[in-house]
Amino acid sequence: MASLQLPVRGPFSLAASSGFLEGFPPAGYRGSTDDEILRLAFPIAGTGAAVGVSVRQDPDGAMLADVDGDVPDGLAAQVARILSLDVDGSGYPDVRRLDPVVDALADRYPGLRPVCFFSPYEAACWAVLAQRTSMVSAAAVKDRIARRHGESLRVGGVEAWAFPSAPRLHAVVDELPVPEVKRERLRALAEATMDGRLDADRLRALPAEEALAAVRELPGMGPFSAELVVIRGAGAPDVFPQSEGRLHAAMAELYGLVDPTASRLAAVAERWAPYRSWVSVLIRSAGDAGTRGRTRMIRRSPAVG
After folding, report:
1. How far is CA 212 from the centre of its chain?
2. What is the DSSP letter of 173?
3. Considering the entire predicted model, what is its pTM?
């Protein structure tokens, strides 16, 4: 078994990441109560292979990713992006102190950073699967696809299923348990991934508006889906979602705003730069936890940083 050390710059809590995934239906994640390991199984970006990774955080805050077998090129960067560890978060405490609302929420969810989809491709596929259905139903379909067409892996002694890679999905798309229109959209997304249009590094290198526009060119990708792909797929840290109604409603309540426009809310979010995506996820996490009637979304664990 090989171990990769992942950089940690700024506050971060692995327990917060695990709790985030447990409350996020697309992940289908069920943590283990007997250890503090985050188990991930996913296709390696740019390949048709899958990998299982066990992520752990030492008491001193060091992040380690254990991999069975050889370590593929680019794996450390992909895991870091999934956990938002590829972003220097050392300036985040200064940003939160400038906004009392953000400061209070960050105290409630110490060390929370966005946990991304394993790739923009997976985020885009989720967006299609979730169209015109509930998140619970879409998550069940996503799980069925992974179990039938993905790869089964042992990760930290536990079986986990990786969502099929783009080449694999493209080969079996006609067998998927979804309507024909979704099959065609998934086929197009697999093709876009294989020709590089949904590459995370490419999307992150573009200005936000250009990245969003590029994703919107793909079938089934409207403004909301494009923001999901860029923010939670590619891991762009500083994009304010203009189309996320639940976020806007939560912001209006938190800031005492009456029927604010999206542009008014975007102006509020400017004070969060360069972590507008992070704060947006923080606000949504708090709102979703409240909607579920849960007083705590994450395990009690000190953040590092």
Report:
1. 16
2. G
3. 0.90
